Amino acid sequence: MITGANTGIGFETALVLARRGAHVVLAVRDAVKGAQAKERIAAAVPGARITVQSLDLSCLKSVRAAAEALGAAGLRIDLLINNAGIMYGKQLRRTADGFELHFGTNHLGHFALTGLLLERMLGVPGSRIVTVSSMGHRQGGPMDLSDVNWTARPYSPTAAYAHSKRANVMFTYALQRRLAQRAATIAVAAHPGGADTTGSRRTTADRGRLGQALFAGLVRPLLIQSAERGAWPILRAATDPAVGGGQFYGPGGFLQSKGHPKAVTSNAQSREAAAQHRLWQISQELTGVRFPV
């Protein structure tokens, strides 16, 4: 199951896995775009087994409905790739449940989804949960765990996005510690580097003409790779037999922006066990989801 699999890195990941014979569930917010992605994969991979599942990570009701639908279908889950996300909304916006949109979608939605699906993975040998972060998780300064929903301080969309992606890594580390006590399932994180995706193109468009020109002439050749190559770290985290629980994969080139995937190190705050534990507690309280580990 891959969230946000109708476009960009999620689509490229789904395409590769379908080519390797996997039954792939495209978990998407827009059912029409999901159906179009299914058709594109079917055209490239005749006989591919593709299912489209409606999922809006910014709405816990939708997350629960998707988990219930997969449960009713009786599917075992070998691989859950938490890929979907939003990037750099200009204004403070909130989810259907009142959470800051980046944190609520990128982290809390995936936290809840993973917790609700985990029972279907624990008994599956070799099963993995891969949560997709960003090299941007290093930005934004310290993450204020007393105000994850930005109610008591001036809003910064850049910091909000960075903190939500830092939360992805912290969640992975905390989950792996719990899984290691009783399960064959492992949790791994990955990031795509400077991938050419809808979000990155939107950010470029916001730079103005001069900024766009400088970006196209200087930054893009050095730091940006295709969405197809951006999927490589996710695919390695998902499939390499040598990958261990709690590892973090990203491109091995300059500034982790491009290149072949390798194990990388996340920023200092993301590695703090106390911060991970506090984030886990907050996430449980906000979502109402308890994990079976």
Give a written overview of the molecule.
This protein is α/β, with parallel strands linked by helices. The protein is globular. Strand 1 (2-3), helix 1 (8-19) and strand 2 form a beta-alpha-beta unit. 45% of the residues lie in helices and 11% in strands. Helix 4 (101-117) packs parallel to helix 5. Keywords: Oxidoreductase. This is Oxidoreductase. Belongs to the short-chain dehydrogenases/reductases (SDR) family.
Question: How is the topology of this model organized?
Answer:
Blueprint: E1 2-3, H1 8-19, E2 24-28, H2 31-44, E3 50-54, H3 60-73, E4 79-82, H4 101-117, E5 128-132, H5 157-179, E6 186-190, H6 198-205, H7 208-223, H8 227-230, H9 232-239, E7 248-251, E8 261-263, H10 273-287
Parallel strand pairs: 1-2, 2-3, 4-5, 5-6, 6-7
Antiparallel strand pairs: 7-8
Helix pairs in contact: 3-4, 4-5, 4-10, 5-10
